[in-house]
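$ ./design --mode recover --in tokens.txt
reading tokens...
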């Protein structure tokens, strides 16, 4: 189909070299998905104490024990989510050549459209997915594409409010002021990432998305019912089973640093499926590039850094090692 990125064609050389090599074939050996991710009902935030207080505690405990949790009654309507997914599908079903020139067509920043990892030098770095990575600041420029633009705007507005509520609760629980984010991190430079995982004929050899931690304060994800997302818990990979009424929330590197390691930014990845395609939509809650990330807790685990410095370090590390090293680069 002309909308599919040419994964096999581009990955061919690496695959020929490595297929059948058993040392590279143990991708899923460590999956043991028995534990259930916390599922938190945000409805309780509208109730009187002690119910409200209990819910706040559940959120902060999940953020420190798991770094990940699911939320229901989150206030984002099915209408908003379905509209987003339907626009997302239309976008991905454009011919591949159009997607490659999406930045010019939609008037967007470079690298909004990404696919796989054409620069991979070994099988472990291949990923079987494509994504549109929209900076929220770019969305108002998409005047020619009204329905996509309005879906992104509605989704972003609701997600931003939800993320704001969650970070305020999480801030309070680590003795920061609840308005810390409003006072220190405006303007925000959050973004939306639309992901598509095409059916993968070699799903036992490659991942849909490689294991990574997010560079955000907080990420909120809507996933369809296919499944494939896994997170690392106590050294084991655990499946995040799809729940159609839930959103998945995870702590990003910036909040781990800001909370002085109380909240955990956890590695996660997506397993590729052989027969079906999968969609997910992520909202990354982030500050402006020159925002300073520094915990007030003592002794500090990390030196102070700006998001710009963090991103630069990440880019250099990915270029040199194929992998983002992340927070350990900034340990004092
Ligand atoms: O598709 C998913 O379930 C996860 C996506 C993800 O981790 C990301 O976009 O950073
Ligand atoms: Fe992620």
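writing sequence...
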């Amino acid at each position: 189909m002309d909308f599919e990125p040419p994964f096999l064609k581009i990955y061919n050389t690496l695959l020929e070299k490595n297929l059948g090599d058993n040392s590279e074939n143990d991708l899923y050996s460590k999956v043991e998905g028995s534990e259930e991710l916390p599922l938190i009902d945000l409805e309780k935030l509208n109730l009187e104490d002690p119910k409200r207080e209990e819910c706040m505690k559940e959120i902060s405990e999940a953020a420190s024990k798991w770094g990940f949790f699911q939320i229901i009654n989150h206030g984002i309507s099915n209408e908003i989510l379905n509209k987003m997914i339907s626009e997302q599908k239309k976008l991905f079903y454009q011919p591949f050549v159009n997607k490659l020139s999406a930045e010019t067509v939609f008037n967007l920043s470079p690298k909004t459209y990404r696919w796989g990892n054409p620069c991979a030098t070994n099988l472990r770095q291949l990923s079987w997915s494509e994504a549109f990575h929209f900076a929220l600041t770019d969305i108002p420029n998409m005047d020619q594409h009204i329905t996509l633009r309005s879906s992104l705007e509605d989704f972003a507005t609701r997600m931003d409010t939800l993320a704001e509520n969650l970070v305020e609760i999480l801030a309070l629980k680590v003795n920061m002021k609840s308005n810390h984010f409003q006072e220190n991190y405006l303007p925000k430079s959050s973004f939306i990432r639309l992901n598509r995982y095409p059916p993968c004929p070699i799903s036992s050899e490659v991942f849909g998305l490689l294991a990574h931690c997010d560079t955000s304060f907080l990420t909120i994800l809507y996933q369809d019912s296919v499944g494939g997302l896994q997170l690392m818990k106590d050294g084991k990979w655990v499946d995040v089973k799809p729940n159609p009424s839930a959103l998945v929330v995870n702590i990003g590197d910036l909040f781990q640093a800001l909370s002085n390691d109380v909240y955990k930014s956890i590695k996660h990845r997506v397993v590729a499926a052989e027969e079906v395609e999968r969609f997910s939509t992520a909202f990354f809650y982030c500050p402006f590039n020159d925002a300073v990330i520094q915990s007030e807790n003592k002794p500090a685990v990390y030196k102070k850094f700006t998001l710009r410095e963090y991103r630069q370090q990440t880019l250099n590390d990915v270029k040199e090692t194929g992998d983002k090293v992340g927070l350990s680069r900034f340990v004092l």
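exit 0
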